[in-house]
Design brief:
Layout (H helix, E strand, L loop, with lengths): L3 E5 L10 H10 L4 E4 L17 H11 L4 E7 L6 H14 L4 E5 L6 H5 L10 H20 L2 E5 L4 E6 L12 E4 L3 H10 L2 E4 L3 H4 L4 H21 L9 E4 L11 H14 L3 E5 L11 H14 L3
Helix pairs in contact: 2-3, 3-5, 5-6, 6-8, 9-10
């Protein structure tokens, strides 16, 4: 088995001032996929700096590349509606000639959760976010696989929505479902073509790498139970770790990364996603080491 190595490129660069080149460089380095965040804005220090839209960025990246897979890590219902998102995704899948993966999650309580609120409105609770997420994923699945959809739900409606000709990828573009709770894991087991984790945030702040791996192993075990309940082989569901949020330092050197990757491969992780370095942030790293990891590590991760 070969561990897939991908990157996530935050949408912080003007396209004419280095944005295009980063995506093209990701393809040159041989990354399996290049993803981007889908937020209106993100945490400090990014909150008050440049931040561009995910779908236009991916559209431009699709036109500037030809081989690398592209996608979101992750889209959420916080400010998206499945009807309009489906139309954008079908268009993006067409422009990229079938290279799009939709990373999708329930969203959090950050800036996106407040952006569309009116006076006196409260952000969604975790339960309400989970309710939206379940309905969002199920309706999006229909919108991307059926030519015409009518649906009336608790949170979303669709009236005679047409999505012809549908996705280039059949029956639709793949979903990579980010989830660790019971309801989200059931969605991953039912609708996902991959599962995504960032590890356990409770461990990331004060825990050790060993505790982090134990937490991820527990998540994978619970995913397996959800897959079994859905009549699905969990071993055939790719498992993605978005790095940068565990108490590890995999970008210190090629050897450090290979050790990190090997230990997570033993847990069942199939794809590691590395943040493209950004100076002065939590994703700061030596770009030359990062590029060496991309170029040299995959050959060492083939079993």
């Amino acid at each position: 088995m070969t561990m897939r190595l991908s990157t996530v490129i935050l949408p912080v660069r003007r396209w004419s001032r280095g944005g295009r080149e980063v995506w093209q460089r990701a393809e040159e380095l041989g990354f399996h996929a290049a993803y981007t965040y889908d937020h209106l804005s993100w945490r400090v220090p990014f909150r008050d700096g440049p931040w561009f839209g995910a779908v236009p960025t991916l559209t431009a990246a699709a036109a500037a590349t030809s081989r690398i897979r592209l996608g979101t890590l992750v889209t959420s219902p916080n400010f998206r509606h499945p009807v309009t998102l489906a139309k954008e995704l079908i268009s993006l899948d067409d422009i990229s000639d079938g290279r799009i993966t939709l990373g999708i999650g329930a969203g959090g309580n950050g800036f996106d959760a407040h952006a569309l609120l009116g006076g006196g409105e409260e952000p969604w609770t975790p339960r309400v976010r989970a309710n939206h997420f379940a309905e969002f994923v199920a309706l999006l699945d229909r919108l991307l696989t059926e030519d015409a959809v009518t649906y009336e739900g608790e949170h979303y409606n669709a009236h005679e929505v047409r999505n012809v000709p549908g996705c280039v990828q059949r029956p639709r573009l793949p979903f990579a479902v980010a989830a660790t709770g019971p309801r989200g894991l059931r969605l991953a087991a039912r609708y996902g073509q991959a599962w995504v984790t960032t590890g356990d945030p409770k461990v990331s702040a004060d825990g050790t790498p060993e505790q982090s791996r134990a937490a991820i192993a527990g998540q994978i075990e619970r995913l397996g139970a959800a897959c079994e309940a859905a009549g699905r082989d969990a071993g055939k569901l790719p498992k993605i770790l978005l790095t940068g949020f565990t108490p590890d330092r995999p970008l210190d050197s090629v050897d450090a990364f290979v050790d990190f990757a090997g230990r997570h491969a033993e847990l069942g992780i199939d794809e590691l996603v590395l943040h493209w370095p950004i100076d002065g942030t939590i994703f700061e790293a030596d770009l030359s080491v990062f590029e060496r990891i991309a170029a040299e590590a995959p050959a060492q991760l083939t079993a």
